[in-house]
Every structure is written in structure tokens, then in C-alpha cells.
Amino acid sequence: MIVKQIELHNFRNYENLQLNFSDQVNIFYGDNAQGKTNILESVYVCSTTKSHKGTRDRDMIKLGEEEGHIRMHLEKKGIPHRIDMHLKKNKTKGVAIDGIPIRRSAELFGMMNVIFFSPEDLSMIKNGPGERRRFMDLELCQLNKLYLYYLSNYNKILDQRNNLLKQISFNSSLQETLEVWDQQLCEYGTKIIESRAEFVKEMNELVGDTHSTLSGGRERLQISYEPSVASGDMAEKLKKTREQDIYRKATGYGPHRDDISFFVGDVNLKQFGSQGQQRTAALSLKLAEIELVKKKIGENPVLLLDDVLSELDRKRQHHLLNSMEGIQTMLTCTGLEEFVGDRQKFNHIFHVMDGMVSEQEENPIL
């Protein structure tokens, strides 16, 4: 799985840009706020239809323009493909695969598997549960199109149920219609809980060894899935807490309240782990994610590293760089000093300055 070329038109701070990538490691270096992350974002958008930042389509269009375009040429299992993304300020984006428009984003997921790793991800362990749910959802959506279907329907029904709960305070007779929404919420919610439980189980088979290596054999990481309600108990729980939900005007139980915890022995890293332990656990999680994609689809994902090496000590940097072997990687950094002395070869090095990208003719770190 390789990204061969990206073409940008009126995307972020790029009016027109065309880049060809190495199938190994591609480095984008330069000062902050020059447009390095925007290149990684364009690859992510073409792979998932959404920005890793959660921003709206209109915010990715170059200032003063009404539309933006991304075209990505990729190769999957030796077969070339093209993804076209047409961003519009006031309309839904248009997406085409190999020149054929698609109607649903589910048709794009899995076309290109990407793993995005930023400094914010290093804080995933200690931050709120929303980030950890998002981590599970993004990977599961790429690996399983049915999961995307379950999640999309669940979120729509959840919104409708919550709106109904707000209306009941003005019209109590609407309470009778809750049963219909609860049945549908349970149908999709149960599938999500079961999928997440299996995902965490598969991650646990990989993350322990990775974390043990990173910690010098001193620690072994274990992930614990913490659903707000067991899959088989969801219908009963919604029924028992219906009055509470009406009072709070929100649904109190379901996959939208799930979390995952991280343990080293009996120590819960969310509550009692040091910053170093939490960061090591987050790195272990990302590295295990790479291995899980390989295992599930039989190909390497594309790895996007956004200025994350500067946040790691030399030992963890070296381990991450070694893990990139054989994987197409695009990484951003402010300078090349951190790579001096590392044996990893970098085939493409680009300097980014004020929305202009120039390829280095000679490798300055060898």
C-alpha cells in the first residue's frame, strides 16, 4: 500500500502543489506554520474523508476561495488507483474513486489504511475518554466497513433519541415513542460493543511485547475495554434509566460512554502512571496498531508522523524509526539534526517554507 503522488489545488495554504513520494521514508522539514502538516492532512483526508483535526471542509479550503481539490494516486496490491476529493464551502464534498463518484464515505474506507501519529496522541492515556473512543473508531472504520455502518447509524439514532428526550419535557405523551428508538439503539450499540471488545483483545495480543521492549523488559502493558454497559444488558439498562435520561435530557448509557484503560501490573496508568509511562504506553499503542493492520489486511499501512519525534527521547525515537522499516512513512519535523547518526535511509527530503515545497537534491543527513 503506497501513496505515489498527491496533487493539491486551493487546499489550506497551497494554491497548486504536486508531490511524488518515495515508497520508504519522506521527510518534510521547516519552521512551524509553513504547511508541513497540511500535506499529511491531505493524505489523511483522501483516506478517511475527514481531517485528523476534526475541522470542517470549508476550513481546509484556501482563504478567499470557494472550492479546493485533492487528488491522490496510490498503489494497492500492485494495482494503481486514484482518489479525487472535491471540497466545497457550502455543500457536501464530492469523492470519486478511479473517476467514479461515490455516494457514501463507507465506500472509501479501507481503500488506503493510514495511521496518524501526532504529539497530541502521546497524551491520549491521560486525556478524556472521547480521544480513546475516537482511536478505536478510526481504526475499526478502516478495517471493517460494517463497523462504520453500525457507528453511523448508532450516532444518528442517538441524536434523534436525545432530541426526543428534550421534547418530552414539553410533551410527556412523546415518552411512548422512546421504545422504538431504544430498540434500534440497542441493535447497533450491541454490534459496536462486540466489535470494540474484539479489537481490544487483538491489540492486547500485540501491545504487550512492544511495550516490554520499549521499557527495557521492566513493564508489560495490558489494555482493558470498559463499556458503559454490557452488550447483552443494554436494552434493560436503557429501560431502567429512562426516567433519569428524561430528567437529564440525554442518554446516559451506551457505546458513546465507553472507555479503555491501560495497566502495568495493577497500576492504572490513566490515574497513577508517570508522564513517561503514559507516553511509552501511547507509543506502544500506535506501534501495535501498525502490526494489527498488517495482520488484518496483509499489507503495511501508510504511517503519518506529525512532529512526533521531537517529543520522544532518543531511545524511543530509535525504536519508532526501526519500526518504520518497510513501511511508507511521511513525517514532519522542524530540523534534521535529530536524524544525525541514525542508520535509517531517507529517500525523499523536502524543505517546506511559506507554502512552497522544494526537494533536496542531496541527502543532508547521511
Please give the structural blueprint.
Blueprint: E1 2-11, E2 14-20, E3 25-29, H1 36-48, H2 57-60, E4 67-76, E5 79-88, E6 94-97, E7 100-101, E8 114-117, H3 129-143, H4 145-168, H5 178-214, E9 221-226, H6 234-240, H7 242-248, E10 259-264, E11 267-268, H8 269-272, H9 275-297, E12 302-306, H10 314-323, E13 329-333, E14 348-353, E15 356-359
Parallel strand pairs: 3-13, 3-14, 8-12, 12-13
Antiparallel strand pairs: 1-2, 1-4, 4-5, 5-6, 6-7, 9-10, 10-11, 14-15
Helix pairs in contact: 3-4, 4-5, 5-6, 5-9
Could you please describe the fold and organization of this structure?
- With 366 residues, the chain is an alpha/beta fold.
- It folds into two domains: 1-113 and 299-366, P-loop containing nucleotide triphosphate hydrolases (Rossmann fold, 3-Layer(aba) Sandwich); 120-298, Up-down Bundle (Glutathione S-transferase Yfyf (Class Pi), Chain A, domain 2), CATH 1.20.1050.
- It has ten helices and 15 strands.
- The protein has helices at residues 36-48, 57-60, 129-143, 145-168, 178-214, 234-240, 242-248, 269-272, 275-297, 314-323, and strands spanning 2-11, 14-20, 25-29, 67-76, 79-88, 94-97, 100-101, 114-117, 221-226, 259-264, 267-268, 302-306, 329-333, 348-353, 356-359.
- A six-stranded antiparallel β-sheet has the order 2-1-4-5-6-7. The chain has a six-stranded mixed β-sheet with strand order 8-12-13-3-14-15, sandwiched between helices.
- A hairpin with a 5-residue loop joins strand 5 and strand 6.
- Helix 5 crosses helix 6 (234-240).
- The two termini are 27 Å apart.
- The mean pLDDT is 90.
